[in-house]
């Protein structure tokens, strides 16, 4: 009997033990299920974590995108021959006297082109005459203009002055040195094309604007048969001196982003380029010129891009014509202002010329060269044309000259 009771107790203990294991197993299963199926709060936390991770990833992606390229632009305006006959400076003298002022008042001559110079970073002028008060003013064929003329050019915004033209020796070495002193007495003015000595010539003129470096060189075909004294230290370079020119242009190309050259070349009062013009231009571009600003023929000629050996493009204005003059030939009444942008990618160093324009202007005067001034062709009227004092100057003349400017560059504005 005792033995039977003992076996029953052992059986009951074993049953309780098995029941406990089953409960523990069940609890374990519930725990596993709970862990693998999150509660609503846990699910919300997981969504929030996922969203934050996604936003961080996106922010990281934005931060690692390459920055916008650093693109710089310099706006250039260039003007042709500022050829000051006595009728122009005498007119300016009378206007100053009428206002009870001393000197010369050139405002009337240039006031209608001021708008084209506004906003120019670099404004380049071919000053065709000596500018100084050290010598008396003089007319054709040996020009000299009063200093007030130069002051007006600076006031207009011209900050780069080319002296490479056939009239640079009109008043001899004395006149050359005098005009150099005038331009050098003004801060911020770059002059080139004529120099006081070899050291001055070798001091290549450069100008940095908005992170872009420009170099300036100028050459002329001739100086009207005039020459410097044999013992003069002054320096000018003729276009026939090709070995020296190549050396200078190649050096300029090494130190500057943009090489600007002002050649005074071509046949006067002719709208077609001479073979010499074309040949010299090709050489200048081959050696490193980027922008060529031609003068001398006193009437507008073509402008165009030219391929460079490195695959880039230069731009040439073969002749801008006159800015103003008192010449009497009908073709000399029509000139152009050059207008363009130099664009540089500062990251890659690439430099290109964009938006080149040729803006036509008219030299206007009345009977006996009265009231000489510049008229933009955009606002030129039949009445002004009728009143013009130049015999033979008519609309056909204007149309003929402008026909040499490619339509894609001609900008009547």
Automatic annotation (TrEMBL):
Q: Which family does it belong to?
A: Belongs to the CapA family.
Task: Determine if Cytoplasm is one of this entry's keywords.
Answer: no
Record domain Capsule synthesis protein CapA: where: 75-327
Record key words, sorted: Signal
- Signal peptide positions on this chain: 1-22
Superkingdom, natural source: Bacteria
Q: Would I find Mitochondrion among this entry's keywords?
A: no
Give the transmembrane region(s): none
Give the species: Candidatus Faeciplasma pullistercoris
**Protein name listed in UniProt:** CapA family protein
InterPro entries for this protein: Capsule_synth_CapA (IPR019079), CW_Biosynth-Accessory (IPR052169), Metallo-depent_PP-like (IPR029052)
Name the Pfam families on file.
Answer: PGA_cap
